[in-house]
Amino acid sequence: MVVITSGQTQPWIDFHPVSALANDYLLIKPGQVFRHDFSQTWHGWMVVFRPERLHSIGNGQALATQIDTLPDHCSLASSVLQDVEVGLSNMQRDSAEVIDVPTRQSLLQLQLSYVLLRLCLVQASGLHPGQSPSRAFAHYERFKKQLEKDFAKHHQVQHFSATLGLSVKSLNRACLEATGLSTKSCINQRIALEAKRLLAHTALAVQ
Questions:
Q1: Residues with Cβ < 8 Å from 17, sequence gap 6 or more?
Q2: Which one of 21, 101, 166, 173 counts the least CB within 10 Å of its CB?
């Protein structure tokens, strides 16, 4: 996670430039390719963490699952940024001052969970009271999660529609509404992205 407090920067996430200004945050998720921008001056915070080590939230749902829905890039209101900075400042202080390792680890996990929950609340507040995402968008989110699990072995639209219990037409409509792409194009795009990631992260050659 990168939080920009002043200045601006344009790093790359998964081979696309992202223009980030003060009050913005970037969330780079496991497997994504991230490249720093060293051409501009900016100040802020960077936290590297393992999602599976995060605490569960109140209803028992893993916080790691919750943050999967957060965007890669978002602008924060000044009041929210202040809350986030307080949490990160506490983490910085306690990582240096708390000597007992198990206590320090638990404290940092709780503080990081606080920061990430703040970001989750920002996303949830974008909906009006009582409003929930559209049915098509909910279908797309389910498809996106299933695609992450199955894209290496399954490349057919029919596999995903059957697995999700949707018609091919309904799934295609959901993908078009959420991304502007057909289901097949989403699948192909994910396969191509994985190929790029492997070339960036490993010594594999193009074959």
A1: 10, 11
A2: 101
Supply the range of the domain harboring residue 47: 2-124
178 and 143 within one domain: yes
Report the Cα 91 to chain-centroid distance in Å. 21
Instruction: Out of 75, 99, 124, pick the residue that ends a domain.
Output: 124
From first to last of its 207 residues, the chain has per-residue pLDDT tens of 999 999 999 999 999 999 999 999 999 988 888 999 999 999 999 999 888 777 655 554 667 777 877 888 999 999 999 999 999 999 999 999 999 999 999 899 899 989 998 888 887 665 433 445 578 888 998 999 899 999 999 999 999 999 999 999 999 999 999 899 999 999 999 999 898 888 887 776 666
9 with 30, same domain: the answer is yes
pTM score, whole prediction: 0.71
d(CA 47, CA 156): 38
The answer on 158 and 111 residing in a single domain is no
Number of domains, the chain? 2
Rounded CA separation 20/8 (Å): 6
Q: Which of 138, 122, 192 is nearest to 170 (CA)?
A: 138
Q: Does 75 lie in the same domain as 175?
A: no
